[in-house]
Specification:
Elements lengths: L4 H12 L5 H7 L4 H8 L7 H11 L3 H6 L8 E4 L2 E3 L4 E3 L7 H14 L14 H8 L7 H9 L2 E4 L7 E5 L2 E6 L5 H17 L13 H12 L2 H5 L8 H11 L10
Parallel strand pairs: 4-6
Antiparallel strand pairs: 1-5, 2-3, 5-6
Helix pairs in contact: 2-3, 7-10, 9-10
């Protein structure tokens, strides 16, 4: 049986009790207890302004309240966090610094794809599968291969203060701040690929640092496979050989927090 708007709001109220009673919800959404009761039971509908206030009280999208489905146009993201070497922890990223650039990217996708497509599952799940999909020497044209082989857009956007991976309008994309540091760009690409593979994208206000270590491990194994690292005779490796390896890997080291 299909649930109604009233059913969904009732479910939200039940889940919030005893901290939030029906009477308290009525007060917060500027309805009388009787009016809210009739709306919950289907005797009357919710006005758009009432649904907007219910959405604000419970932190739920109006699209879900109206349809019972997630809004296909909503934007989900994960972001690269800074690593604090003194504490060994990842610092929470300040997304407000990148808000204007992020919103511009979202607007481009929402206008360019007014009818969002259903998000297709990625065909790779592990660093090994990713290396196979991207092909030998992928770091030389890393972004191009990501776009061509995985249909993930790669953008470089002024105004970003951290790398982001987004799902918007049914498409996946990685957004990077421009940088002349090739190694840093490669690591950011691999790291955000990890977030996309792991499904870490969430609502912007819920982005957390707890997924950073897993994304780092994915990036480390993608760019610097452990078996390959252990097979090298590091004690006898000359500077020229090390330089060749760094160029081949496109990354100078496995960073802290990736082991």
């Amino acid at each position: 049986m299909t649930s109604s708007v009233g059913d969904r709001v009732k479910g939200l109220i039940r889940a919030a009790q005893p901290q939030l009673t029906q009477a308290a919800v009525a007060a917060q959404v500027e309805m009388t207890p009787d009016t809210l009761s009739r709306a919950l039971n289907g005797s009357r509908g919710f006005a758009a302004s009432e649904l907007a206030r219910v959405s604000e009280v419970f932190g739920i999208s109006m699209y879900w309240l109206a349809t019972g489905k997630e809004d296909p146009r909503r934007s989900l993201l994960a972001a690269r966090h800074e690593y604090d070497h003194e504490t060994g922890l990842h610092k929470r990223v300040d997304l407000e610094k990148s808000a204007e650039a992020r919103e511009a990217i979202e607007l481009v996708y929402q206008q360019g794809f007014p009818e969002p497509a259903e998000l297709v599952p990625l065909r790779v799940r592990t660093p090994e599968e990713m290396r196979a999909a991207l092909g030998s020497g992928f770091v030389i044209d890393f972004a191009d291969r990501i776009e061509r082989e995985l249909e993930i857009d790669v953008l470089r956007f002024e105004g970003l203060h951290t790398a982001l991976s987004l799902i918007v309008a049914g498409r996946r994309c990685i957004a990077l701040q421009p940088s002349p540091n090739w190694f840093y760009q490669n690591w950011s690409l691999a790291h955000e690929l990890g977030h996309l593979i792991l499904g870490d994208q969430t609502d912007p206000e819920q982005v957390a640092a707890s997924t950073e270590s897993a994304a780092n491990r994915f990036a480390a194994e993608l760019l610097l496979p452990e078996t390959e690292m252990r097979s090298i005779e590091w004690q006898t490796l000359q500077a020229e050989g090390l330089a060749e390896l760094l160029w081949e890997w496109g990354s100078p080291r496995r960073p802290s927090g990736s082991d």
